[in-house]
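It would be a great kindness if you could assist me with a short task in structural biology. Thank you for your consideration; the sequence and its tokens are set out here.
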Amino acid sequence: MTLDLHSHKTQLVVTALAASAVTAGLFSAYQQHVKRQRRRTLDQDILRSLSGPEKLKATRGAADDDVHAVKVGGSSTPKRVPLGYDEELVREQLARNYVFFGEEGMAKIRKGTVVVIGCGGVGSWAAVMFARSGVSKIRLVDFDQVTLSSLNRHATAGLSDVGTPKVKCIERALREITRVVEIDARIDIWRKESGGDLLEGADWVIDAIDNITTKVDLLKYCHDHNIKIFSSMGAGAKCDPTRIQISDISYTMYDPLARSVRRRLRLAGVSSGIPVVYSTEVPGEVKLLPLPEEEFKKGNVKELGVFDDFRVRILPVLGPLPAIFGLHIATYILCELADKPIHNPLPVKSRKKFNERLARDLQRREEKFLGHQINKLPLDDDDLGLVFDDLYRGRTALPPHPVPERPALVRWDPSIPLSLTNCVAFEFADAEKHLKECLLEKNRPEDVWGEDVVEVVRRRTEEARKVVEWVM
């Protein structure tokens, strides 16, 4: 079929198509021109505000709050920048969030109010992501100042911030990120006696406090007053990001801080209902950095802190870990604010049934060895998971240490009780052999398995002792 260019109908179609293309091109060019013009106008407004003596009135109102003091273009002195910010530019800044959460979800986030209690390595990162994600009201609460040792993990602090309050440091940074956030920076410490003042209006509270007494008081207060709170457990002395979990406080394991908090809350009548971020990683050899000798000469080390129970010695912290904790918190709460919650956080390694089977098999071997039934093992399911997954890395103690097809645990030394330090991982058949030849027939393990296996078990036993000292 040939196209007749001389046909009147064909000429009309071609003309219509050409006109449509020209119209679309003109419309697109106009949109680009309007956007460039708005940006140019905004730039001019900012330049006028930097050079002019008078403050530009903000679209939000209050005369004292109509401008931000921020550092612009690397300048060392704060400049005055207007709060007024075109809604189209706000939406462009938050475009990726709008695509993810949708109009309704983002409307809820932008109306949200969060309170960050503790603005160190964890809290600062959470605060930054709340601001970047459009949360409109952020209250920062911390009494402490930025130190040189803060700089390996704090989200916003630099050398020029050393000696300044952490909340002010974060406030300055957030005002450079967005102009649609109201920041309430409080150089203060949360106390249960006046706790409601700092938590007023909060949709969510973030607990990033180091002090365990204050942490438990805050969690208890929020639980009793139906205030939503998310708590950070211990990020210190950890290095494995794959072990970081979000769960209810009642499900935490292997984290010494979580263990202490959980016990104190239970005594206070709170057993669950508080989401936390924590790590299942069992720390290696952990030591506090030593205090200078002159500090000990001042008197009791416990009296050197600014407040009771706040640590005065530096706990080893790998900078990325508290940042990851803070980002976990921000992600969880943003999804909650948008009514797009994380319904089913991954259970810890999904190993519950596996650990229960290990426990049943081990109890059967213990009963054969002891010659009578026992009601309960001295190790719980989580302890057995720690032995297999963490101490023996999910492998058998026998070289070349393959992943066992049917994992099993068994007491190692018949002369001492079953414990974390006296439990070894084998293939099922090897565990049965160990029960028969070492436990029942009293043969020496080195005669049955050889010196290489004995040395592996010795090293794992030493690791288990450190776990007991750190976690238990």
